[in-house]
Amino acid sequence: MFRSRLRTLLLVLGAALALVGGLLLAWPGRAGAAADPLISRGKPATASSAESSSLGAKNAFDGAAATRWASAEGKDPQWIRVDLGAAATISRVRLSWEAAYAKAYRVEVSADGAAWIPIAQESAGNGGTDDWTGLSGKGRYLRVYGTARGTAYGYSLFEAEVYGTVDGGPPPAGAFTVVAAGDIAAQCTASDSGCAHPKTAALAQQIDPKFYLTMGDNQYDDARLVDYRAYYDKTWGAFKAKTRPVPGNHETYDPAGSLAGYKSYFGSIAYPQGKSYYSFDEGNWHFIALDSNSFDQAAQLDWLKADLAANGKQCIAAYWHHPLYSSGGHGNDPVSKPVWKILYGAKADLVLNGHDHHYERFAPQDPDGKATAGGIVEVVGGMGGAEPYPIEDVQPNSQKRISGQYGVLKLQFTDSGYGWTYVGSDGQVKDTSPKYSCH
C-alpha cells in the first residue's frame, strides 16, 4: 500500500517537474539568455580596489579559470565593473565566486558610468556560482556592487560573464584603449593621506590600457633622478614599460641639466628615436610625442613636418606639455601655435596637453581659436597628482572644465574615430566626450 502511494507520488512529482521545466524553457527571457553571446570577455575593467597588482579587475573577464579579481580585505562596499564598449542589451550575468564571496550585492547597469540602475539583487548569497538569467538591462557599463561580505575577507570573482547583444553589432575595427595624464608625481607617498599620484596610478593600472601617455611634469619639483626613483617610480613606474612620456617644464629644472633626470629614468622609452620627441603607430592612428620646451627650435619643427609627410595613417594624435588654449592659471601658451599650424595643415585630429592642473575639453578649432568642424580637438589633462589649479579665464570653445578632482583620461580609439571619459581617482566617470570621426 505504501509503495503504491509512493510510486504514484513520484509519478505526479515527475510530471510536475517536467511541466515546470517546459515552462522555463518556453519563457522568452530564458530562451533569449541561452542564445545571447558572451560580450564581456577581454573588455576593459576597473574596480574599487585590488588586494594586489596580480589580482586586478581584468582577471574577472579574461576567461581563465585560474585567475581572479580580489578586493581589499575587510571593507564594504566594494565593486567591479566592465566597459562593454557600446550600449548593450543584457540578458544574463553569470558570477563565479572564489571563497571570498558576497552575501549581499547588486548587479547594475549604466549608460555613462555615473548613474546606475539595478537589474538584479542578492541579499542572502552563499557563494559558488550565481547565474542571473532573464534580465532586461541596457547600458554600456555593468557593475557588481557588493554591500555585505560573506566572509571576513573581501570580495573575489574568478569570472564575471555578461551575455547579451551590443548595439550596432561587434566592436569597431582596430579598437584599443589608452590612459593619459600630466602633472603627476608630487613629492609624497601613499603613506601621506593627501598624496594623489598613488591613487591615479592605481586607477590607471586597473584600466590596463594598450599603453599610457604622460603629458609632462611627470615628477616634481626639479625632476631629479633621485626624485623619480623615490616618488614616480613607486606609483606610475609600475607600468613604465608601457608608458610613452613627454617632458614638461619641471623636467628642465634639474640641477644636473635640463631633462637629465627624465632621460636617465626613462632612457630609450622617452628617446626611442634619439631625441626628446618621437612618433609611433597603433592601428590606424599615428601618435606624435613632442617636447614643448623646445618649440622655438627649428630642428623639432622640421622633424615634425617630415614625420607628418611620411605618415600613412588616417588618424593623427599629438601630445605635449604646454597647451595652446587653457582656462586655467597658466592660460593660453602661444609657444604651441606654430605646431598647431603644422598639425592643422596635416588634418590632425586630437591634441593632449598638461601644464594647467585641471581637466578641460575644447570643441574642434583651428590654430587661431575659430570653431570649425575640421579643427583639432584639444584636451587638457593635468590632474595626474599635482596640486589642482582653479579655473580662471574661460576660453572660447571650452566645453567642459573640472578642477579639484584628480583623475586620468581614458581614451577609446578605433580605426575611424575616438572619444574618451575623464575618470576620477574614485573610479567614477566625471565627464564623457562626444564621439569624433577622424578627418
Question: What string gives the helices and strands in order?
Answer: HHEEEEEEEEEHEHEHEEHEHEEEEEEEE
Annotation, overall tally of beta strands:
22
State the low-pLDDT regions, or none: 1-34
Level of helix content? 10-25%
Instruction: Briefly note the structural class of the backbone.
Output: alpha+beta
Termini separation: 85 Å
Q: Count every helix, treating DSSP H or I runs of 4 or more residues as helices.
A: 7
The averaged pLDDT comes out at 90
Global shape: globular
Question: What percentage of amino acids are in beta strands?
Answer: 25-35%
Rg, alpha carbons: 25 Å
Largest sheet entry: 8 strands, antiparallel
Keywords for this entry:
439 residues; alpha+beta; 7 helices; 18% helix
What report would you give on this structure?
The chain is an alpha+beta fold. The chain contains 7 helices and 22 strands. It has helices at 2-26, 28-35, 197-207, 225-230, 260-266, 298-310, 337-345; strands at residues 45-47, 69-70, 78-97, 102-110, 117-122, 129-132, 137-149, 156-166, 176-181, 211-214, 243-244, 278-282, 285-289, 315-319, 350-353, 359-362, 377-381, 398-402, 407-413, 417-424, 429-432, 436-437. The strands form 3 sheets. Strands 1, 2, 3, 4, 5, 6, 7 and 8 form an 8-stranded antiparallel β-sheet that branches. Strands 9, 10, 11, 19, 20, 21 and 22 form a 7-stranded mixed β-sheet that branches. A 7-stranded mixed β-sheet has the order 12-13-14-15-17-16-18, with no helix packed on it. Strand 12 (278-282) and strand 13 (285-289) form a beta hairpin. Helix 6 packs parallel to helix 7. The protein starts with a helix and ends with a strand.
